[in-house]
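Structure request: DUF2911 domain-containing protein, Flagellimonas profundi.
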Amino acid sequence: MSRYISISIVFGLLLITSCKEKKTEPLPEQPKETTTPEPPKKVLSPHTSTMTMIGDAHIHIDYSSPGVRDRIIFGGLLAYDQVWQAGAHMATWIETNKDLVINNKILPAGKYGFFTIPSKEEWTIVFNSNWNQHGKDEYDEKEDVVRFKVRPVISDEVTEHLEYQINKVNEKEGTISLSWEKVSIKFNFKVNQ
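Returned structure:
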C-alpha cells in the first residue's frame, strides 16, 4: 500500500509540475508591412467632348485632349503637311442632326471623322465619312465629304490641352474652333434650313 501511496505522490508531483505556468519570452514584434498607395495615374490625353444647340441643330464633338508637356507640337511632334486625327487615340468625331453649310459646301446630318492637315501658312480641314477609326490608321481621302482650308492664328499664350469649342453666333450660325499649343483655327457654319 505504501508503494501505491508513493506512486500516487510521485504522479501528483509530476502532474503539478507539468501544470505550472511556463514563462515564455514574448516574440519580437514583427515589422508591419506598410504599403504606400500609388497615386492614381494621370491621364495624359483625357477623353472629353463639347456640344451645343444652334437653333434646333445639335452639334457634338468627341475627342481625346493631349497635353503640350513642354513639347513643340506643330512642326515637331506633328509633322507639317501630314494628316492628323485632330486629337489623340481614336479619331475626333463630329456629329450633327441637321445639315450644315461649311465653306459653301453642304455637310449632311450625320457623324464624321474630323481630320486636319496642319501647315505653317494654312490648314486643311476634313470631314470624313469614316468616323470610327484609331488615329488616322484607316484614313482614306476618297471618303472625305467636305474639305477646305483655313488660316491658323498664332498666339503668345500656350493652350496646354487641346480644346474644341462650338460657339453660337445666332439661331442659324455658329463657329467651331480648335486650340492647342500656340495655334488656333476657327471656321463658321450655318444650319441649312
